[in-house]
Every structure is written in structure tokens, then in C-alpha cells.
Specification:
Elements: E1 9-10, E2 25-30, H1 34-44, E3 47-49, E4 52-59, H2 62-71, E5 75-80, H3 89-100, E6 107-112, H4 120-126, E7 131-134, H5 140-161
Parallel strand pairs: 2-4, 2-5, 5-6, 6-7
Antiparallel strand pairs: 1-3, 3-4
């Protein structure tokens, strides 16, 4: 196995780039900070997994995130901030996604800039999320790894459901 097997690859690195026949992987970025959206756009631009492109969708509040999930149920993963309209807006959205929308397929990665509200262990125990990272410690390689693992997990869930 080479390094390209482990990462979302850039178009120019993927030797088998062909016109997309399959839909893109949808990643929803839910954060009230435009800078976070812009950095994510730059880091994920041109990424592919298994020949499928990555499409970023953007929401700037928990309410917009919920509406995006209602409008586009094929969202494979969310990069979700906790503190937006309120200190717990992102975590309340997790509850709505899992309970009200009954969406257990989408992988939810908490990406927060304020880790003091709940410890990582407490957050992972209390909420049905699939990952946690601090914005200040998130490198290009780490974001790539997180997205790869979440999208693979989403793919497996979708395939198992038939």
C-alpha cells in the first residue's frame, strides 16, 4: 500500500481521474466563522476519494446546518463547530440530527476553538459524534485524515444499508 491509498488525493496526483460518473462526497461545514470556511475550501480544493470529488456545503449557523441536512440527505460528514449562536448550538444540532432527523449515517466531526465547555472525553461519551479536534491544532494532513476516515465510514454504512 502506498501513501496515496491512505489519503484523499488531489486531482493531479490521481492517475485515474475520469469524468465524475458518481456523485461527489458531500461535506457540510457548519461554523459561524467565515475564515474557517475559507481555510477548509483551500485545504479541500481538488480532493478526491475513490475517483469521486469532494463538494463542500456551507452553513453559518446550527439552523442553516439543519436545513442543509433536510435539503440534502446525502451529506456524508459534517465539520461542526460547537459555539455559534449559543455556547451549545453545535451540540444541540447533533441531537436534532440523530433524534429528529433520524440521520445516523452522516459522520459528525466536532471542530471547536473553545475546548473548555466540555472535555473531549465527556463530549464523546454524551453525544453521538464520530470525532473531535481543536481548530488550532488542525493541520492540512490531519484534516485530510479525518475526512478520509469519516467518508470511508459513511461509504461503508451506506453500502451495508443496501
Amino acid at each position: 500500500m502506498n501513501d496515496d491509498d491512505d489519503l484523499l488525493v488531489l486531482d493531479e496526483e490521481d492517475e485515474q481521474v475520469a469524468p465524475d460518473l458518481a456523485p461527489p462526497w458531500n461535506i457540510l461545514v457548519v461554523d459561524d466563522d467565515e475564515g474557517v470556511h475559507e481555510v477548509t475550501r483551500l485545504l479541500m480544493q481538488g480532493r478526491r476519494l475513490e475517483g469521486r470529488s469532494v463538494r463542500l456545503l456551507h452553513a453559518y449557523s446550527a439552523a442553516e446546518g439543519e436545513q442543509a441536512l433536510r435539503d440534502q440527505p446525502e451529506i456524508g460528514m459534517l465539520l461542526l463547530d460547537v459555539v455559534m449562536e449559543t455556547e451549545m448550538a453545535g451540540l444541540l444540532l447533533v441531537e436534532r440530527i440523530r433524534r429528529e432527523l433520524n440521520n445516523h449515517r452522516a459522520r459528525i466531526i466536532i471542530r471547536t476553538g473553545q475546548p473548555g465547555l466540555l472535555s473531549e472525553d465527556e463530549l464523546l461519551r454524551r453525544y453521538d459524534v464520530n470525532g473531535y479536534c481543536l481548530k488550532t491544532q488542525l493541520t492540512d494532513a490531519e484534516l485530510n485524515r479525518i475526512c478520509l476516515l469519516a467518508l470511508r465510514n459513511y461509504r461503508d454504512i451506506v453500502e451495508a444499508a443496501g
